[in-house]
Amino acid sequence: MDDLREGVAGAGARPVLLPGKSIALVHEWFAVTGGSENVFVAMHEVVPQAKPFVLWRDADAQRGAGFQESWLARTPLRHAKPLALPVMPLTWRTLTREHFDVVISSSHAFAHTVKMGSPEETRYLSYVHSPARYVWSPDFDGRGSNGLLTLPRKALQAADVRLSRHVHSYAANSREVQTRLRRFWNRDCRVIHPPVDVQYFAEAPEHQRRQERGYLLGVGRWIPYKNFDVIIRIANASGIPLVIAGSGPEEANLRRAAEAAAVPVRFERQPSRERLRELYWGAYALLFPAHEDFGIIPVEAQACGTPVLGVSRGGLLETVVQGETGFLLDSLEPVEYAAALRHVGQLDRDRIRAHAWNFSADVFKARIASWIADDAS
To answer: How far apart are CA 365 and CA 377, in angstroms?
Structure first.
């Protein structure tokens, strides 16, 4: 496996040391699992001397035991994120009386508005997963399409821009998000892709190293914009069995569609990490016809040598090499995906695995460390 890592720049980042400076790390809510939580943990490993703050930490989260929670964690709003949105900017301004020399935020809502000292005395850096979708892009996120948020949304947008003018440097998790920062906030930034545990997924389970790849695979939350109904139709058009892994509110609809399909469709509800790796390694291809900011699942699949077929939009344009690690289509027509699947066997699975190392945790840490070293002083 080591030879697949050759040529990947930035592996093996060391912690950033800022002698004599007090540093705070802040994040939105800290859930059990999630890409943004993984980013925050990795950032803390880069600046281990930083004091970590979160809005609240889920009771069953295994990580983050030492993170300091906001006063919002002691209210019922911790269980109702949409209702908590209007008070989040206030929360970030009343988080602590402590002042810090450097404040680094991991933001997908309002964490980038945090203030722990005047901008003349404190350097503010913010890593952005996306401007809050339910505020800026309600077509992407159903929470923002709630009619009750129509009027508050304009006020929240204005507050989001006004309360973040003190940020000295931004980084975005993809070029897709970089474009949004320019459009919504009129701010430029560098791009640092989030960390993927490539090392774990690239190691084939022993019993699968010579196994034939015999099915198509769909992975993720079973919600409308992920297009799992399209995935079932693609499997139908290709005549290849399908496995759908995940969970979500669309399960009943998807099971009905699966019953009507002409190919076998198997559901794997909430697979363990180990089981997910097995599913990637056993798949002929991952189907991912969804517009994502970045998309960690396609990178995990590529780490297993599994090609990706998806839409030519969003993060897939940055993580899939057209004709080398998968195929991207400007379409949701199942017959077009079925046609592309006929060429998957021509792809080099070792080349696909090697490409995934460009998104490893080591690469992320090296680039975060460089950003902090450049912009925190």
So the answer is: 19
Scanning the structure block, which residue is given the tokens 């001397």? 49
Region at 269 (left for phi over 0; alpha for psi -120 to 50; beta for the rest): beta
91 token code pair: 């929360």
Residues 6+ apart with CB under 8 A from 269: 246, 247, 251
- E-strand stretches of the chain: 23-27, 51-54, 68-69, 102-107, 123-128, 169-172, 190-191, 215-221, 242-247, 265-269, 283-288, 308-311, 326-329
Please, are residues 171 and 371 in contact by the beta-carbon 8 Å criterion?
yes
Distance CA(103)–CA(95), nearest Å, equals 13
Check the CA dihedral 317-321-325-330 and report its sign.
Answer: positive
CB neighbour list of residue 329: distance below 8 Å, 6 or more residues apart = 309, 310, 311, 312, 336, 337, 340
Nearest to 215 by CA among 251, 271, 260, 268: 268
- What is the torsional sign of CA 113, 114, 117, 119? negative
Q: 196-216 pLDDT, tens per residue?
A: 999 999 999 877 655 678 899
Cβ neighbours of residue 162 under 8 Å, at least 6 residues apart?
A: none
326's torsion region: left (phi>0), alpha (psi -120 to 50) or beta?
Answer: left
- Report pLDDT digits (tens) over 34-50: 788 999 999 999 999 99
